[in-house]
């Protein structure tokens, strides 16, 4: 679990450069088993935030607690040990070109003093798990981008961390590799009960792999929450980026409904059964967010005014639905 409390980071002024407030009072919590997407425009502080989680960058103020340890209060030796519990992968993979895939994955284990035989068996098992059983002896130059990122994931997981930080991990990959790496990250989070943070500038990555999201702008958190909550919050700046909103409804008796799961069918069928109304779907968008489907539909209700009114009242009474009667 990661808990950041009131984190601020100021990069002090240097010659010919003014001071930069990269993060301003950021508080954030990621539980085990969650995949948190951190999104935001270029320069909003995403990478700084990732580097603060493992204290590669020290916050100017605020505390960083990872799995119950307050990293900000540890000695250098203690911090080194704690960092083994935090794996990290990067856009550019950062593999050693002169070493095989197997040797790359073994490296952090060697540094941690793990014996040769155990090193080999753990690294082999991890490379098999990420789908590279036949590439143990390949060098990075002989691997595709997606395969290199899989080696990097195996290497990050070798010390058996509880936390995995991914900084633009799929930004250099083609769409097919992106899909398989995101799926792998999601699966590994579930299998190993990891706390995973995905730094990305792509909303699509959030939609496909994350269950929670935080939006940074100018170093501040401007939106955060579980995807299912964010999409149905009217004032959320991320809601329509996750689930596009159809053009504003025209005419009377038009309602907009935002629901998760298979609820659409249930909601519409229920209306038709209970009330003497006809329901026409005018527009809508449906997205799979994480492993759940969400939809935003505009529907028009036709029928006798009293029946339509009753149907609208019924919709308004359901908390997961939002009414937008024109
Ligand atoms: N070492 C540093 N020294 C001075 N300023 C820095 C340093 N690192 C980052 N910054 C500044 O802090 C701000 C946030 O940078 P950061 O790299 O965290 O943003 P980002 O959201 O990850 O951007 P991008 O998506 O472009 O990578 C930027 O204004 C950047 O110029």
TrEMBL record:
Part of the ABC transporter FtsEX involved in cellular division. Has ATPase activity. Gene3D superfamilies: 3.30.70.260, P-loop containing nucleotide triphosphate hydrolases. The keyword Nucleotide-binding applies. Homodimer. Forms a membrane-associated complex with FtsX. It comes from Ornithinimicrobium pratense. This is ATP-binding cassette domain-containing protein. SMART domains: AAA, NIL. Residues 2-243 form the ABC transporter domain.
